[in-house]
Amino acid sequence: MQKGKIGVSTDNIFPIIKKYLYSDHEIFLRELVSNAVDATQKLNTLARLGDFKGELGDTTIRIAVDEKKKTITISDRGVGMTAEEIDKYINQVAFSGANDFLEKYKKDANAIIGHFGLGFYSAFMVSKKVEIHTLSYKEGAQAVKWECDGSPEYSIEEIDKKERGTDIVLFIDDENKQFADKNEIERLLKKYCRFLPIPIAIGKKTKWEDGKEVETDEDNIVNETKPLWTQTPSGLKEDDYKKFYHSLYPMAEDPLFNIHLNVDYPFNLTGILYFPKIRNNIEIQKNKIQLYCNQVYVTDSVEGIVPEFLTLLHGVIDSPDIPLNVSRSYLQSDSNVKKISSHITKKVADRLDEIFRNERKSFEEKWDDLKIFIEYGMLTDEKFYERAQKFALLKNTEGKYFTFEEYKNIIKDLQTDKDKQLVYLYATNKEDQYSFIEAAKNKGYDVLLMDGQLDTHFINHLEQKFDKARFVRVDSDVPEKLIPKEEKNELKLTEAEKDNLTQLFKSQTPNINNANFIVAFEALDENDKPVMITQQEFMRRMKDMSQTGGGPMMFYGDMPDSYNLVVNGNHKLIRRIADDCEKEVGEKANELRDKIKNLETRKSELEKAKEGKKEEEIPQAQKEELQDVEKQISELRKQKDDVLSDYAAKNKLVSQLIDLALLSNNMLKGEALSRFVQRSLELI
Asked: What are the TM regions of this chain, as residue ranges (predicted)?
């Protein structure tokens, strides 16, 4: 028997492996099975080249779990090893200065494995002892057994082993006894080794017989050796892609379509990416792309490896140029990974462009599901925006689809304002904003439907990209002011009438939680609506963005909703209310208004007298008079407002017009709606 020490410069390699790889301890199985696959593929290559002339036989890799002895055995019938090869590949761990190594990588468990050729040593994360039983394929080779208990000491002895290949036996330690469980090992094999190119078996398949589960003679193969992405696209059908998708995501709906990646220059990249249907929360859709290296599972956390917006896609990416066992931070700085990321973006854009050009009708039918991917990409990736603007679509409220260029040409004649800006009108809810949409259409305008999860952000982005253009929500102003032209109607109300009407309508606006109403007058056509409710574009957009964006926008989310109660001063019903008000309470209101005006004149004189003086230089009598005048003004204003409010409360037409405006905005509910119905019956 040969004994010796593993070639490391310090005794603490095993504590490092156990301590700092513990969070990733599952991957020991992936590493050992991958080594078994490598050994088997090497033998296949030697046989193909004629350097191995023996019978290959059954090369299935077999995993056995002894739950009583707490052992796991990984067996292959690959090239095997001689004692000299064990000494070279196992005993001489290829790094020195373990203390420096520990300090550098202690925060990054995955960086230790693979980066230093430590794949086999991941076995010690879960084992108190590891044995290697191996027989080389070479003629006349002697079988040997290597044993190590997790210290630098090891032993090698000759053994009797008839079959070519290697058995790795792990004696699971007490801290990791959950791995001495066949079901757990089968779960890990299906997670990490599902698509490895050599058959992997764990035990035998079972069947129900006479009310109990019994083993059959058939191997329980856990992997698919020729997954779909390794096959030639021309030989595959749409059903093959759907079947594979549902094997990856059993509960998912059918995908929209797929992109089969097959690149061999300037790097190797294969895979299949699927566009899934996304219902609401885009965050829960992430981490669905599985990353493989030569069919070995690496991760499903692919941010930094694929572009941010493509993390919404599902599917598989496989590349030998992506390091198998390094950290995310390393991946994000790796030049090959950056090239792959850029290529995937180009490939996705090219495929979308191809579908758009060749199957536009089908593309339009899928647009409502597809647009979240494209908008996300255009928002987060400048190169993708440049490519996507050829096939990105805008949908109007009539369900018609247009490219950016097509839509610009359709609206430019009617929807250019007096400042030569092109105005894109849009609605976010076709039902709630129906009356505003119809009012805009009646003026010959077209209205886009922007009701997607990202549309508020996308609108802002397009405003920055489009030349001399802005987006205006259709309910943000009265129809005449959505796209301001040179011509203007004259408002047919006096200042006194405006003052009266302001209080009449203000006093009857509803008390809606977190909402303010500001009465405003517009000189609209006498056939337009008498009262409308609009919401200022900037503030509403900021509030919408706060709901999806967070960060600085959260400030706007906490602010109350501000609405304009727009009164059409030229409508005959408004004229009637103004005339009736004048008849009933006009004299009293004007008398109070005159008194307020006189007092405001005196207030201005007193304030002017204070100018340029220090506080102590102003006579006390003057200060007291100013306070008294301000108090009188406040009291008189309240009296005037009370007179007008009392009149408004009795005037059913004022409340009716306000409620009609609320109803048009889907803001009249509950008790208020019931009162409106009753009042309508009374007025009829």
From this structure: none
* Residues above pLDDT 70, as percent of the chain: 86
- Per residue in 545-572, pLDDT (tens digit) is 665 554 444 444 456 778 889 999 999 9
> What CATH number does the domain located at 392-482 have?
3.40.50.11260
CATH of region 228-358, choose from 3.30.230.80, 3.40.630.30, 3.40.30.10, 3.40.50.12780: 3.30.230.80
pLDDT in tens, 386-426: 999 999 999 999 999 999 999 999 999 999 998 899 999 99
**How far apart (Å, rounded) are the C-alpha atoms in residues 113 and 28?**
10
Q: H helices within 517-586, ranges in order?
A: 537-549, 554-557, 572-581
From the number of C-beta atoms within 10 Å of its C-beta (0-12, 13-18, 19+), residue 381 rates as buried
pLDDT the model gives residue 253? 87
Least confident span in 33-37, 221-225, 540-544: 540-544
- Predicted pLDDT at 335: 67
Least confident of 106-110, 345-349, 458-462, 614-618: 106-110
Class of domain 2-221: alpha beta
Count CB atoms within 10 A of the CB of residue 36: 27
Range 583-597 burial, b when 16+ CB lie within 10 A, else e: eebbeebeebbeebe
Q: What are phi and psi of 604, to 5 degrees?
A: -60, -40
- Per the annotation, binding residues for ATP are 31, 35, 76, 81, 96-97, 166, 328
Which residues carry a binding-site annotation? 31, 35, 76, 81, 96-97, 166, 328
**511 phi, psi to nearest 5 deg:** -95, 85
Percent of the chain with pLDDT over 90: 48
Domain positions in the chain: 2-221, 228-358, 392-482, 495-536+563-683
CB 494 within 8 A of CB 560: no
Place of tokens 């894109």: 424
**Which residues in 153-311 belong to E strands, given as ranges?**
153-158, 165-172, 200-209, 212-221, 257-263, 269-275, 289-293, 296-299
Q: What is the mean pLDDT of the chain?
A: 85
